[in-house]
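Archive maintenance. Older records in this collection stored only the sequence; we are now back-filling the structure field for every entry so that each record is complete. The fields below show one back-filled record exactly as it appears after the update. Entries are processed alphabetically, and DUF4440 domain-containing protein is next in the queue.

ARCHIVE ENTRY
Title: DUF4440 domain-containing protein
Organism field: Nocardioides luteus
Length field: 117
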Amino acid sequence: MTASAAELAEAYFTAWQERDFTRLRSLLADEVSFAGPLATIEGADECVAGLEGMAQVLDKIEVKERLADGPSVITWFDLHTTIAEPAPTANWMRVEDGLISEIRVAFDPRGILAARG
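Back-filled structure field:
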């Protein structure tokens, strides 16, 4: 049975927060594309590497709302890091053939960028 887009989004955020990068990789299509204020990435392995890097400063993900419409999911959450104030964040995902194929993220990165110097 194939997971719904909302279930895949929940599994993605759980795996990222738990730093289970093997599980996280299994949710991504090989050709996944990621675009956000800190990076634009093509490919699942590169995407996982980027999320591993961000996990070094990740404290927690506080999901406020998740809305799904067919293959698309938007998750609104507060991104808590160890280096900056929480950043309200919107994450849009598209699911194709039971895997996450596109990820777009929007948040104000100034606190994180300032802390990283």
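Update note: The chain is about 30% helix and 45% strand. The beta strands are 28-35, 40-42, 58-69, 72-81, 87-96, 99-106.
Entry marked complete.
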